[in-house]
Each structure stands twice: as C-alpha cells, then as structure tokens.
C-alpha cells in the first residue's frame, strides 16, 4: 500500500529526530497514526486496517532502539484491530483518532507522576548529575527546584550529538543553576554530586538500560564513587521482547564524529547513538508507579506479554 507523502514526511521526522526524548517521540508516533486516520482515503474497513498497519510498521522500524515508539504504536494498532469487526469505517476512524489522543494523554500523565515521585527522590541542597536529553528528567528537576529552590545540576555534553545542551538550556532558562561539562570530565565532577539521574529509551527483558551513549561510563563512575544512580522512565519503555544484546543501537553518520577525509580510509569510524548499562550498576528505576529495584523490574518483565 502506498502511504501519502505527508505521512511519509511525518514518519521521516520521527526517524531523523535527534532532539526529543523517547517519550516525546512515542507521542509523535501516535500523532502520525492519528493524522493517517483523519486523512485516510480508505473506502473499506479492510483497506483502512491495511493502511494503519503499514504506517505502524514503518514507525516501528524508524527508531529501533526506542521501546516506547514500538510499544505505543503496537498498543494503538492492537486497539484498532480489536474494534474493526464491531464498527463501520467512519466509526472506526473516529475511534482511532480518539484512542490515539487518549494514549498521548496517558503518556503525559505518566511523566507528570514521575515528576512528583522524582522530586521526592531529590533532597534539599542536592547536586545532581544527568546525561543525554530526557523530557522526563527535565520535568523532575523543575519540580524539585520548585519544591526546594536549592538544587544544582551538572549535565554532560552527551556524545557527538550534544543532546545535553538541550537539557542545560531548558534547566538554565528555568533558573536552575547548571554546570555544563564535556563527557570526558565526568570522572572529575562525579564525586561532587549527591546522585545521578538519567532517562531511558528502553528497559530490556534482562534489566539492561538503553540510553544515550555515555550513560554506561557515567554508571561506572557513579559506582566507583558510591553515588546512587537512578533511571527514571515510564513503563511504556519496558520491553519484554528483547535482551540488551539484541537491541539495534542506531549508528549515526561517521561524519558527525569526525569530518570526512580527516582520517585515512583504513580507519573505521563508529558513532552509536545509544549504549547499554547493566542492571547491577543501577540503584533503582523510578516509574509512574514508584521506585523499583532492577530485580523487581526484571521479575515484572518476565510476566509481561511480548508485543
């Protein structure tokens, strides 16, 4: 089935977005399905389902490292398929739009709940280090700052993409004292913080955490200095399907790491967007339902159906 240029453009926007976090991209994916439903030219329920399935499959392939994109799309597609036999075409389109909106609101509410829990995780006077960009982490730190007015943040550049600049900018404009450092300076500053908090793009079936590249090194530094290391994410990011070694970590263009022609052709350049942190380096995983140990998360994932 041929997808319209407008829908293809929206899918490409999700695929190429290096600015927003995984939760925001999952909500963008839901919006793509919504737009596809609103502007569908399908003349039957069967044709509409084929169209939704094709859009869903392309969205799932767009960001393979980000579990919430897959989970969001899979949940929405299953909901539409389950109603197809009960509704005519017009009602099914309306249901699809409504369910997509509902899923987006569920995700927004989950982030708000994590912000409430996360603000209590942080204490008055804390100095917190973070890495990569996460809208959830930004929401937590803003909520903690509103509560105490006496926290400070150290954020890293966060790899070649420099997504930590977005974090620093959002927090700085909010009035939070922020120190911006290169990733190579983590070891120099880690002992000056009370805790580390990061987001996640996926929590794997074996409890391994997929997040922006450099997170693993930060976790090692935190363990070495006995600084608590917390992962904050909604349960939409839990993935019972894959273990850490099975995840596609999404390679970036080598030219983003080193200019074309600056190294001889014999040199192989690798530019992964993500890395994997083992659960033994994680103090706890904070979700919209509260704080869980890595073992509790693994046990939960064992009982969760694979999508």
Please, could you describe this protein's structure?
The chain is of the alpha/beta class. The chain folds into two domains: 5-111, translation initiation factor eif-2b, domain 1 (Four Helix Bundle (Hemerythrin (Met), subunit A)), CATH 1.20.120.420; 121-302, Translation initiation factor eif-2b, domain 2 (Rossmann fold, 3-Layer(aba) Sandwich). Helix content is 47%, strand content 12%. The chain contains ten helices and ten strands. It has helices at residues 5-16, 22-38, 45-62, 67-83, 89-121, 135-148, 164-173, 186-189, 215-224, 294-302, and strands at 127-130, 152-156, 178-181, 195-198, 202-203, 209-212, 229-232, 274-277, 284-287, 290-292. It has a seven-stranded mixed sheet with strand order 3-2-1-4-7-9-10, sandwiched between helices. It has a three-stranded antiparallel sheet with strand order 5-6-8, covered by helices on one side. Helix 2 packs antiparallel against helix 3 (45-62).
* Spatial strand order of the main sheet: 3-2-1-4-7-9-10
CATH class of the largest domain: Alpha Beta
Q: How many structural domains does the protein architecture include?
A: 2
CATH topology of the largest domain: Rossmann fold
Based on CA atoms alone, the radius of gyration comes out at 20 Å
Helix percent reads 40-55%
Instruction: Enumerate how many helices there are, as a single number.
Output: 10
Fourth-tier CATH superfamily name of the largest domain = Translation initiation factor eif-2b, domain 2
